[in-house]
């Protein structure tokens, strides 16, 4: 599970930004949203990010996407992945050509792994990986890399040292070692922790939704899935009472079934259903898999095209007992900013300041009272992150 993710000099985030999923111990409400991968560590399953338009919410999602992209593709001198991921803060002479840095901490039953690196558009500048054993609390260095070279910890040195000089400047050591057949599984495990959190941009609701649906119905859809999905679609009055999937050499045809005015069954291709219905199906495919397999989703503009009650239904999927799945999403809808549904440490704000630089912070930093009306406080500007709307000069009509 993701414990925290930090980054700096990416998009509008010039200074270090730390997004923390570790639960605040003093908050005891909504324990179903807290997982315990180890007995003394509480990690939030759900967090939401608010902020004005153009504040940087999409760039926060993009920052993790670039971090993940580098880990998954940086192998064997893949310069393209590095160039694609390098997006420094442009409105400052000192940062426009400076390095970008990412770091993530992940926790499981064995302990915590802290991995990060810095890079520019040509090479990896620094890289580090540390492990803290959950039982002994002992911290150990797995790898450190800087301008003086690569240093390996005692647990991997004998097996990996012979490959140290083979790692190119534009390749992450983590990516290099995870591709080798090694006795140690630490590199593959950490890479999997990073990749298991899937960033989903707002494009999924438009240009990419067709691909998402085709993949779901081709690979993951079965009778058990259908029963649960039809129940969800019935609850939102979609009018769909059955779904059939026809597979052929030319592809997959998905048909939705509706009961007409005459009581007869009418069939229509999924493509003509509303964009909201198609988004619900696509999100369900992601959500159900993430909850079942203990993976994470980082979604931009989750609330777009969704009714507030449906948004709550989907978010609540991650409260399933025993699941280690995580959901992080950006949002404008304040309907879930209610003490009945959310903890104060689950709410994050992104605010853009002078000079175009964004910052990110938790509502918990304000130490809000437990009985505070969170939605009203946010919309009134108590926590920041709201747009400044100028009053119109148009005179009120009598």
Write up this protein.
By secondary structure, the chain is of the alpha+beta class. It contains ten helices and 18 strands. It has helices at 57-73, 79-85, 154-160, 173-178, 186-195, 209-220, 223-235, 275-293, 308-316, 374-379, and strands at residues 2-8, 17-20, 34-38, 41-44, 46-51, 100-108, 111-119, 124-133, 139-146, 149-152, 197-200, 242-248, 251-259, 265-269, 296-299, 326-330, 347-352, 358-362. Strands 2-1-6-7-8-9-10 form a seven-stranded antiparallel beta sheet. A six-stranded mixed beta sheet has the order 11-15-16-5-17-18, sandwiched between helices. A hairpin with a 5-residue loop joins β13 (251-259) and β14 (265-269). α1 (57-73) packs antiparallel against α2 and α6 crosses α8. It is globular and about 80 Å long.
What attributes does this structure have?
seven-stranded antiparallel beta sheet, six-stranded mixed beta sheet, 10 helices, alpha+beta, single chain, 398 residues
Secondary structure elements and their pairing?
Blueprint: E1 2-8, E2 17-20, E3 34-38, E4 41-44, E5 46-51, H1 57-73, H2 79-85, E6 100-108, E7 111-119, E8 124-133, E9 139-146, E10 149-152, H3 154-160, H4 173-178, H5 186-195, E11 197-200, H6 209-220, H7 223-235, E12 242-248, E13 251-259, E14 265-269, H8 275-293, E15 296-299, H9 308-316, E16 326-330, E17 347-352, E18 358-362, H10 374-379
Parallel strand pairs: 5-16, 5-17, 11-15, 15-16
Antiparallel strand pairs: 1-2, 1-6, 3-4, 6-7, 7-8, 8-9, 9-10, 12-13, 13-14, 17-18
